[in-house]
Amino acid sequence: MQINGHELAVEVEGTGPPVLMVHGLGGTSNFYQVQADALVDRFQVIRVDSAGAGRSALAGDISIDAHADDLAALLDALGIASAAVVAHSMGTLVARSFAARHPDKVTKLVLLGAVAEPAEAGRQAQRDRAAVLREKGSAAVAPGVVANALSQNTRRDKPEVAAFVRELVMGQDPEGYARNCEALAAATDPGPISPDLPLLLVTGSEDKVGPQAVSEALAQAHGSAKVTIVEGIGHWTALEDAREVTDQLLAFL
């Protein structure tokens, strides 16, 4: 679909209350395949590859706020007034920006592996990754993503998940991935989540990218959010324990 002047890969399935699913850095809409299959009988499931990621084209502006505005324009293009939003990793910053910039378009919010505004070391790490991507391609960063963002249990007991994460990362366009890394490096905190917006946070006990403390701080600021810590998994939440995340979504939505 043409959204805000660039081409985004969008999948829409099912009927019912709309649910918009937003992937994270290095991911695509396929990150949510298990959850989408479970939701599609009750909900209209909308999945999109963000600009520069997966099957979507580069855009002139790739930033957290630009991704958020793409989500708003996508709902408008589909004739959908508002939706529940499920987001992962960098996508949680996008979803929070979306909720802040377009509050009338978000009915519920689910944040998986929520991340905070990067500290300076984190910003530099993303800029360094962007440089590697441009010099050596996506395959050069895939081993580090698998080693650092999946739990030891997942790598040992679910090698198929590690293989899928590697494939997601290696399938990224290097320039698009680099520019999304730079978008994360430039990210600022989107501000508080409205206490009137139902909020669910799910993260892994071994998540070093979106640690438990980030979700707990967001929940405390919100006042009535639910936080679920899934034992033994890392940052790729919906893949590492697909059943638990699916059950959490079905109950909340």
Characteristic key phrases:
about 250 residues, alpha/beta, seven-stranded mixed sheet, two-stranded antiparallel ribbon, 11 helices
What does this structure look like?
The protein is α/β, with parallel strands linked by helices. The protein has one domain: Rossmann fold (3-Layer(aba) Sandwich), CATH 3.40.50. The protein is 45% helix and 17% strand. The strands form two sheets. The chain has a seven-stranded mixed sheet, sandwiched between helices. It has a two-stranded antiparallel ribbon with strand order 1-2. The two termini are 26 Å apart. The mean pLDDT is 97.
Concise structural overview:
By secondary structure, this protein is an alpha/beta fold. Helices cover 45% and strands 17% of the residues.
Unreliable spans are: none
Order of helices and strands: EEEEHEHEHEHHHHHEHEHH
Strand content: 15-25%
Tell me the major beta sheet.
7 strands, mixed
Level-1 CATH class name: Alpha Beta
Write the layout of secondary structure elements.
Blueprint: E1 2-3, E2 6-7, E3 10-13, E4 18-22, H1 33-39, E5 44-48, H2 64-78, E6 83-88, H3 90-101, E7 106-112, H4 120-136, H5 142-149, H6 152-157, H7 159-170, H8 174-185, E8 199-204, H9 212-222, E9 226-230, H10 237-240, H11 242-252
Parallel strand pairs: 4-5, 4-6, 6-7, 7-8, 8-9
Antiparallel strand pairs: 1-2, 3-5
